[in-house]
Amino acid sequence: MKHVIFGESHGSAIGVTLEGVPAGLELDCAQIARELARRATGKNSLSTARKESDAVTFLSGVFEGKTTGTPLTAVIQNSDQHSADYEAIRYTPRPSHGDYAGYIQSGGHLDYRGGGHFSGRLTAPLVAAGAIAKQILAQRGVVVGAHISSIYGINDASLEDPTQLQGVAEKDFPVLDDAAGEQMQEAILAVKAEGDSVGGAIECVVTGLPAGLGAPDFGCNVEGIFSQYLFSVPAVKTVDFGAGVDFAMMRGSEANDPFLVRDGKIVTKTNYAGGINGGITNGMPLVFEVTLRPTPSISLPQESVDLRTGEETEIEINGRHDPCIVHRAVPVVEAAAALASCALLGI
Amino acid sequence: MKHVIFGESHGSAIGVTLEGVPAGLELDCAQIARELARRATGKNSLSTARKESDAVTFLSGVFEGKTTGTPLTAVIQNSDQHSADYEAIRYTPRPSHGDYAGYIQSGGHLDYRGGGHFSGRLTAPLVAAGAIAKQILAQRGVVVGAHISSIYGINDASLEDPTQLQGVAEKDFPVLDDAAGEQMQEAILAVKAEGDSVGGAIECVVTGLPAGLGAPDFGCNVEGIFSQYLFSVPAVKTVDFGAGVDFAMMRGSEANDPFLVRDGKIVTKTNYAGGINGGITNGMPLVFEVTLRPTPSISLPQESVDLRTGEETEIEINGRHDPCIVHRAVPVVEAAAALASCALLGI
Amino acid sequence: MKHVIFGESHGSAIGVTLEGVPAGLELDCAQIARELARRATGKNSLSTARKESDAVTFLSGVFEGKTTGTPLTAVIQNSDQHSADYEAIRYTPRPSHGDYAGYIQSGGHLDYRGGGHFSGRLTAPLVAAGAIAKQILAQRGVVVGAHISSIYGINDASLEDPTQLQGVAEKDFPVLDDAAGEQMQEAILAVKAEGDSVGGAIECVVTGLPAGLGAPDFGCNVEGIFSQYLFSVPAVKTVDFGAGVDFAMMRGSEANDPFLVRDGKIVTKTNYAGGINGGITNGMPLVFEVTLRPTPSISLPQESVDLRTGEETEIEINGRHDPCIVHRAVPVVEAAAALASCALLGI
Amino acid sequence: MKHVIFGESHGSAIGVTLEGVPAGLELDCAQIARELARRATGKNSLSTARKESDAVTFLSGVFEGKTTGTPLTAVIQNSDQHSADYEAIRYTPRPSHGDYAGYIQSGGHLDYRGGGHFSGRLTAPLVAAGAIAKQILAQRGVVVGAHISSIYGINDASLEDPTQLQGVAEKDFPVLDDAAGEQMQEAILAVKAEGDSVGGAIECVVTGLPAGLGAPDFGCNVEGIFSQYLFSVPAVKTVDFGAGVDFAMMRGSEANDPFLVRDGKIVTKTNYAGGINGGITNGMPLVFEVTLRPTPSISLPQESVDLRTGEETEIEINGRHDPCIVHRAVPVVEAAAALASCALLGI
């Protein structure tokens, strides 16, 4: 299944074109809407005030409620744009946003309004595509789940078992430990009050993938396939499998996952490898964590350069921005993981 | 430039086939040999005792000392194999090695001797390919450098400026701070004495890439392109751009890189973004770190399962193994980064 | 530039998603409309009576009249569908149409109405994409032109020089020799009167491509690249470069194109090779011909099988069909060639 | 399965790297040798006098006689090169050979000796790869066969049924009708005596492919997939499915293949479509024909241009050349078709 996400934040519509969707899947549109609602704004004071209509329309690839196997294009109309907010920053790029790099890449022809194609809004069609992928995976017993693992240094409880993720997707603030979640939300509101933003991390688990998928080779290994999907989620700057960065402090005797037999099946006692050995699934849950940088759009004054004059200048960003996008990114990371899982399964 | 690495540790030869090499490059074979020497074994007591002949032969794609632009196949003969060492583990997979996953993936048809296609030996042709990539990049002013950033929790000095990497490639133990390097080596020898192994991390920098390469989209963003190359290096379990995992503890006001003008050029004051905004290069050095897990091959007894009987068993691994592969992996990570840089430049 | 054509004949809309469009192209929408008008129906009694609204809407990738370089999705709404016409053939596939093969491929889940995704209507977004490609090529001096070379055995005049194609695109019936064109139209009307259809051939020329593009290798040779685009045009069953099938009756001394110098430039005296030697452009005009099979939808009674009962049956096709699609396919073949030319140029 | 053919005619070796070979295939090396013998030179006076050693060595991907599923590199050493023969044509390209286009493409850095990478010799590794593909296909009941359909206007008997191809592969001159084959050989010897060459055509059939493979879309349709493989065979200038160019003279009522039920299976009465409807297999034999241009290397004097001086000049080609390569190309076309069939089957 190949996907192309298209659209700009303040264009007429955003969407996704999917190739290779298996034919005959009875689309559960309510489930797609639920996934989109998980990433939607305006649920509480933690998020941007922009009200988005995220109703998905299928232009193609669906007939009598089922997928036809032909290219499927799903569209979400844009609305409630405040384009005027962005005129001021057209030639004064916001630090650490895609503005400057995108300006150079496009020769100045990018749609600068609302972040254009770089906007977090573009994660809505990704979530829609991921929802379809999840339905395909469900038929094969593959389940994707995630939780916020940390925000601004505040950690969620450790995930010892994938079953702990049950019910987390339904929470407004998807953590294992709601008390930790409260602290995270307080931290977000505190930085919001100061016109600032914070980053965090999301841990994701895919269960049900059989052993033997992938290969050690370039383009075929599980880590490489997943990371390509995960790094296409805006703000993701680290992808970390199993024990991840902690491996740098471990011995082999600690890090190795001994093989055992449980219920007639070969499993590993621990899962530091995150379900992957030699670039191939080993049948254990696939476990990885992504780190998301703080939202670059903050209302504090920042140093920039006027691209017309080449002179340094100070900017203040107006518009409506999220002080933290980690909680909204949980279904987005799941969507990326669902699409990656399909790729791994040859779907 | 596409590459396919082929070969097995105890097969007749290993090598790489490269498509899309620019024509007319005068190959510097001495430089290729130097890069291979950097990853070679037997330099000191830190590494496996296997003596490898890493002489590269070009079967195609080179004529009168220059590349022809046609597919280039480079081959390295294997020698000094002790295949008998591996008979014992044919059906009792080593924990956290590719043995079990590869056995399932291949239906039991993998070449199990010396790790077969999963062997670290396969990084030799990757280094050869990377050496060619470095020569192509050099003509465009692009330079790749790296250092060990930590081993078993012992950190090298911080890299404040890419110029600090000059001369590191020539060191036997490629660190910025040789005192830290001494401690790392002591740690390695200590775990080796106990039949154990350790992991670590490597920081890599690419300078000279122009702003405007890449795109935010799936398959096009800089992080996704690089990570696919980096995760094809055995043992890499984390890829981390710029501030990486630290972003989870930062505010936007700390993490944002202000724009400045220096010598008439737009630069950023800091480089927490690692040279990438919105999936596109911003003209600053590309900075990333990879974490490598401890070598799974340790001589301590470990729990495994006999694949023939399905019964649990204890194994002890003989053969010659590295207690740490981080120092040898430095040129390998550089090679992966050089190939990724070529991909980013459309080469 | 990658493209995905989506939609079904009787769905809500059809369209195309294009990735990799160069940024900053000032879109000439009138030219796109003109190209679409060339393939539109209802111009005369030669074509289906279906009236199609072919107005193109851009959902993304265009800002202030110029391309942004981000994925561009163009949509054409469907209208004037007579879906009831097709109920009768839902389970009795039309001979030589995609019905049966598509039924098997999709497990019976295809949209059978009006040919669904197999409909010739899907060539409208292909023409729109090709029109954009032509605008990109025009900036590089590359021009694509074509004419009907034969219909039902009636041949157009030979194309001796690409300049003969000037003005042909503006003709209602795009031939070099209008007298031959008259005969072709009479032949079409004659078979139409009998409820039958006819096939034909289109010759296409691309001028302005520099020498040295392509390679002999799989996936890189000019013929292979072009044929992939050309065979995605419905009804095309042959792709033929230069002298094509006539090569089977020629000697080397006849078929070889001698090298000459004209105006200080190396050219060939003849162009039997169609501008391609060894899979690489040689700087001469690229010349190829495609053969299109007769429209499979005819109103004469035909033998089919009822897919529900597995029993043989006779069908008569109602609905509105073209007795010949060759004249309407001329801009479609040009569009495919324009996209292929962009691919060859690395765009 | 992806393949890369590497090597130059007068380099040290030629070969192929195959990715994605299914694991566990017991390689029949005798069959590979037989296929290579079918394309070998020196069988009779029809072919070049160059004696080639076509022994295949596997560098990787094979263990204990079976494929491992890892990248497989097969190598054939070069020998009996007469490189000096080619010095004279280094800067005076042979008309209609790849010399000039390749010179421009490589900036003059191609290996000009013996045609370098453009040499027909490079079809040996293609045949080796195809032989492996045939073994994979045989396990799935898919069989590829071909015959010379015409040479210099002399036609072989019509192929009415794929079973006629049995035994043709074993013939020295692979035709259905040996009397026609005698005439073809006489024609070849006659032009050879005059220092000239001739072209021809090959018809190929693939049986056993199930209905429902492929799609109408770009990159997915059967014709597009096959043509990409077929046009990578040197000298192929036309690819023609089913009735091919004859469709231009047919009516729908003649060209349509009626559906019937035979032995409980849906088949078509005729097979003008060549087994493909709407870009998808319909379960009938896949039938296509390729036209091969006359060998451009002839010993008659020809007009060329000296690339150093830019002046016109006359050349005479020495060296050993085939007056016709059609008979030797039969196993090459089968190899390309076998690889394409694997691609279609998702192997």
Summarize the topology:
Four copies of one chain form a homotetramer.
Chain A: E1 2-7, E2 13-19, H1 29-39, E3 56-58, E4 62-63, E5 66-67, E6 72-77, H2 99-105, H3 123-138, E7 143-151, E8 154-155, H4 178-193, E9 200-207, H5 222-230, E10 236-241, H6 252-255, E11 259-262, E12 265-268, E13 276-277, E14 280-281, E15 286-292, E16 302-306, E17 311-315, H7 326-344
Question: How many H/I helices of chain A?
Answer: 7
Any idea what the radius of gyration of chain A is? 21 Å
**Share of β-strand residues of chain A:** 15-25%
What is the makeup of the main sheet of chain A? Answer: 5 strands, antiparallel
For the secondary structure, the number of strands of chain A is: 17
Helix-strand string of chain A: EEHEEEEHHEEHEHEHEEEEEEEH
Can you tell me the overall shape of chain A? globular
Low-confidence sequence ranges of chain A: none
Structure in words:
Four copies of one chain form a homotetramer. By secondary structure, the first copy, chain A, is of the alpha+beta class. Chain A has helices at residues 29-39, 99-105, 123-138, 178-193, 222-230, 252-255, 326-344, and strands at 2-7, 13-19, 56-58, 62-63, 66-67, 72-77, 143-151, 154-155, 200-207, 236-241, 259-262, 265-268, 276-277, 280-281, 286-292, 302-306, 311-315. In chain A, strands 8-7-9-15-10 form a five-stranded antiparallel beta sheet. In chain A, strand 4 and strand 5 (66-67) form a beta hairpin. In chain A, helix 1 (29-39) packs across helix 3 (123-138), helix 1 crosses helix 7 (326-344) and helix 5 (222-230) runs antiparallel to helix 7. The longest helix of chain A has 19 residues, at 326-344. The termini of chain A are close together. The model of chain A has no long low-confidence stretch (mean pLDDT 95). Chains A and B meet through strand 1, helix 2, helix 5, strand 10 and helix 6 of A and strand 1, helix 2, helix 5, strand 10 and helix 6 of B.
